[in-house]
């Protein structure tokens, strides 16, 4: 019997337009009503959790937010596993932040290298400069509750003494990606995941797998009583910490190889279909 379900957001519960369909939301709600502990597991910061999941509303029924959201989820794995939060008690269950000294020297070395800089700090998504912030607001749309603009990231971190859950370095000029790679060779305590336009940088202790293992231990749930659904390489560690492993049809091949089941792609409600078949 599955007691806990960890679900990735982008590329899994969200379709290609970064939207959550009614069918997916309905399936998640039914799982929660069944008593399954529903855990969003995302690369996003906590305050940028998809607004439809946070509100719990179905477009067709027009169910009020407060009633629909009641009991839907309590625990969130955010920032690629850098943090696990109990949102009811406002309590951190697991945290693996970038060391403050590493954060400040990294920002200093990345200055002036054709990079746009963003970070996850205290559950918020901080972006350096108005241009990058405007782009972030446009990309996240209604999910942009946690997006904030800072003038100088290094000065902000130094002044406020905040811990950084994750950095994102956007490649604005040719050669910027390679510069980031070379700089990060000096930081063995950090891990980087690259896309064509940016790099996510976080502590080597931060992973969805470590976060899920910490949460399962906190709740006293056995690994074989857990399930997860994902699509990306950052979900591989979560698979290692789960009992039932489900990969999306649009998932990377390395994840499909590790999966117990492969469902339909995110543009065909694959997450909802998997929940209906294997959880409900």
TrEMBL record:
InterPro entries assigned to the protein according to its UniProt record, in alphabetical order: HAD-like_sf (IPR036412), HAD_sf (IPR023214)
Q: Name one GO molecular function term.
A: magnesium ion binding
Q: Answer whether the UniProt record assigns the keyword Transferase to this protein.
A: no
Q: Which UniProt keywords apply?
A: Hydrolase
Keyword Lipid biosynthesis in annotation? no
A single cellular component GO annotation: cytosol
Report the protein name in the record: HAD hydrolase family protein
Annotated organism of origin: Candidatus Mediterraneibacter faecavium
């Amino acid at each position: 019997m599955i007691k806990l379900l960890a679900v990735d957001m982008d590329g899994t519960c969200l379709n290609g337009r970064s939207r959550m369909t009614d069918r997916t939301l309905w399936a998640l709600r039914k799982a929660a009503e069944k008593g399954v502990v529903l855990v969003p597991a995302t690369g996003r910061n906590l305050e940028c959790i998809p607004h439809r999941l946070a509100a719990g509303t179905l477009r067709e029924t027009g169910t009020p937010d407060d009633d629909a959201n009641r009991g839907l989820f309590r625990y969130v794995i955010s920032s690629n596993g850098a943090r696990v939060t109990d949102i009811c008690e406002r309590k951190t269950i697991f945290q693996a932040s970038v060391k403050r000294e590493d954060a400040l020297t990294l920002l200093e070395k990345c200055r002036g290298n054709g990079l746009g800089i963003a970070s996850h700090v205290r559950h918020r998504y901080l972006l350096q400069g108005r241009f990058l912030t405007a782009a972030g607001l446009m990309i996240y749309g209604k999910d942009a509750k946690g997006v904030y603009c800072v003038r100088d990231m290094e000065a902000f971190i130094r002044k406020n003494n905040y811990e950084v859950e994750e950095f994102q370095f956007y490649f604005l000029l040719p050669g910027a990606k390679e510069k980031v790679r070379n700089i990060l060779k000096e930081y063995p305590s950090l891990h980087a995941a690259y896309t064509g336009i940016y790099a996510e940088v976080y502590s080597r202790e931060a992973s969805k797998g470590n976060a899920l293992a910490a949460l399962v231990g906190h709740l006293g749930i056995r690994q074989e009583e857990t399930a997860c659904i994902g699509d990306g390489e950052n979900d591989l560690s979560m698979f290692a910490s789960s009992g039932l492993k489900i990969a999306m049809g649009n998932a990377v091949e390395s994840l499909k190889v590790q999966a117990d089941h492969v469902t339909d792609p995110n543009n065909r409600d694959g997450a909802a279909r998997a929940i209906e078949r294997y959880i409900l």
